[in-house]
Amino acid sequence: MTTRRPRIGIALGSGSARGWAHVGVIRALERAGISPDIVCGTSIGALVGAAYAAGDIERLDEWVRGLTWQQVMGLMDVRLSGGLIRGSLLVDFFRSRFSDQGIEHLPKKFACVATELTSGREVWLQSGSVVDAVRASVALPGLLAPVVHEERLLVDGGLVNPVPVSLCRALGADVVIGVDLNWDLIGRRNQVPEEVKTKGGPADNGILESIFAKFRGPRGLASTVQNPSMLDVLTTSLNIMQVRITRSRLAGEPADVLIQPRLSGIAAMDFHRGAVAMAEGERATEKALPLVEELLG
Length: 297
What we know:
Elements: E1 8-12, H1 21-31, E2 38-42, H2 44-53, H3 57-65, H4 69-74, E3 78-81, E4 83-85, H5 88-97, E5 109-116, E6 122-125, H6 130-137, E7 142-144, E8 147-149, E9 152-156, H7 165-170, E10 175-179, H8 194-197, H9 207-212, H10 221-225, H11 230-252, E11 257-259, H12 274-295
Parallel strand pairs: 1-2, 1-10, 2-5, 4-7, 10-11
Antiparallel strand pairs: 3-4, 5-6, 5-9, 8-9
């Protein structure tokens, strides 16, 4: 009697720029001969997951490694209605570089998570345009404008399901590998390595710092402890929300293997630091490989 190989699912979690670590996770798994059959993602996890499901992960890797903060800023069509960034430049960019034949036609089974803004309901996007689904999943409230998708107003899926283990299982995964990018964010202050500071990119809170610089109060210890800037409050609050929601969902819907890269030193908008994030994704995955291989027999 032939034993069926377990169907492997990978749940790529939310985390803004920290999500480039997912590329490193995937590379390490593939190098070990582990190729997930089902790919699910939330927010930045949806973007990386879609590229992987389409067979474009190498192209995404190359593009991410070459990103500068000036290029990231060039993709931002800033406005003050619905979200700081409209997102049309970003969508147009990906449409021009990645084939979008529809989720149903991807080589690997793929789905992503968004949140219906009017009801707070979790929405699973499993058909239609890949780019449109990803754009809805990454619509972080206040930063990226919401998306109207099939007559529903959708925002970031990280609000309801930051690591979509449940979606992987619903699509038929026997073994689920979850990737949690936010587990170590609370209580840590972002530290920017010297090599990053010397490359011309903004320090402290990365790209968002350059956008909100004029709102920042006086620098120094008193500013940090007693009178945080608007940006400090916003990013720290989002970190607390993400960590608490993630812990709650994973407690009720645990992954069989949970990969947790250490990414507290990468700010939410540090998309130009992809090489650092990917290297940490690989390191964390290699540490988890013995458990993955044991589960797969």
